Amino acid sequence: MSIKIIHILHHSPSWTSTNLEDDIFDGWHVRTAKAIQKLKINNCQIECWLPEKTYKKTLRIERNGLVYRIFPSEALSNTREFSLPMIKAIKQEKSTPILLHLHGIFNYLTYLITWKFGHLPIVVQHHGDCPPIMLLKLRPLLYSILPLLQLEQFLFCRSLKKIDHFFCLTKQIQLSLNRLGIKNKISLQSMGVEFDLFPEIERISARQKLNLPINSHIILYVGKLNTLKGGDKLIAVFKRLKQKYDITCVVVGASQSDEFFQLAQKNGIIIFPRQPHNSLNLFYHAADVYLYPCDKNIKFWSGIGISTLEAIACNCPVVSPTLSHFPNDYHRIGFFAENINEMVDAIEYVFLHPEQYHGIRKYALAYYDWSKIADNTYYIYQKLFKKYYNITLTKANDQ
Asked: What is the DSSP string of 328-355?
């Protein structure tokens, strides 16, 4: 009997991207689906679905053995989005045993799907979001919509019992779910790194290709320049260090609308726009150290961070408070640092002892290779297909 596994992203790519194709064919739901596809589950069709608020019609595309479907949606924000065409499409999946793998816990689409399809096996992957009420810690101004957040918290709590398994990025989310009575169906699991996308490159060669200074110390940061991500701390650390060292700070992925974009430019930080994922390898290999100075609340909910892992995969040591989520001794890969003074001291140490961080790629490979994550996910799929459909999943190489 054929089966179907549907990976569903909870928000429109256009909230964060001007190049929709990047996220339609390379979102987190797609990367997970591709890792599962490599397991070669017998008689299994894997599909990647997402809503898109700028679309007026449903689109279906087949590419490299995966089916991609994009559905028109209505949205207030990236967590307050729903797609009735997607709900109708799930209803139509009657003849084939299906499993829904939702990417994102705290959002309207997840609440709606779990309410309508609680009779189906549902797996949810946490992607750094947090319970609605906890948003008040991140953005106190949201007290102005407290009644709405309380309603969303109620909807979230109602959806919990309809979900069969949670993959959580952090222990904080796991504890939050435990307090709400969710136990024995939670795994701590991050997203993975495609190590094949990050072959080793000589540092000088990488800098030459990017037209970066050959002999300067280079600090790298990938992401938005805002308070939650620590953009103000990044600038302060750079200002301190450049008083003592020949140093260059490179930011990848910031935009002019970012909170600290103008201040970063004013202080001589080199800013590159968002890059294709396969181009980041050059930046990681060009850097002496990767700095991710995020806010403590981001650290609690978002885990170690994929850019952090990709830097380690490129043998670039990391300075960040998110290293507390590393499952082993993080001193091998960099420094845990929460404030500006600690970050300055840690980066100085890396500059002075680069030999200690040769070959750190192996530590990321041990825990974050997609094949390991796919195997863990497959184990949950096996249990759920047996429970709901009395179907025993098998892989082609099991025969």
From this structure: S-GGGTEE---SHHHHHHHHHHHHH-GG
What is the rounded CA–CA span in Å between residue 271 and residue 261?
9
Q: Where is pLDDT greater, at 235 or 172?
A: 235
Would you state the pLDDT for residue 179? 84
Residue 38, CB-side half-sphere exposure with 13 Å CA sphere: 14
Q: For strands 217-222 and 59-63, give the pairing.
A: unpaired
User: Could you please report the per-residue DSSP string of 6-42?
Assistant: EEEESS-GGGT-S-HHHHHTTSHHHHHHHHHHTT-BT
DSSP state of 251: E
* CA–CA dist 45, 215 (Å, integer): 51
pLDDT at 85 > cutoff 90: yes
Distance (Å, rounded) from C-alpha 51 to C-alpha 72? 6
Q: What is the pLDDT of residue 128?
A: 80
Strand, helix or coil for residue 153: helix
Q: What is the DSSP letter of 369?
A: B
Backbone angles phi, psi at 355, to 5 degrees: -65, -25
Find the DSSP H helices in the chain. 20-24, 28-37, 84-91, 108-116, 135-138, 146-160, 171-179, 203-210, 231-241, 261-266, 280-286, 296-302, 306-313, 340-352, 361-368, 370-389
Contacts of 97 (CB under 8 A, 6+ apart): 1, 3, 4, 385, 388, 389, 391
- Residue 56 burial (CB count, 10 A): 6
Q: How far apart are the first and last CA of the chain?
A: 16
The per-residue b/e assignment along 92-105, b for 16 or more CB within 10 angstroms, e otherwise, is eeeeebbbbbbbbb
Let me know: does 211 contact 224? Beta carbons within 8 Å: no
Confidence of residue 142 (pLDDT cuts 50, 70, 90): low
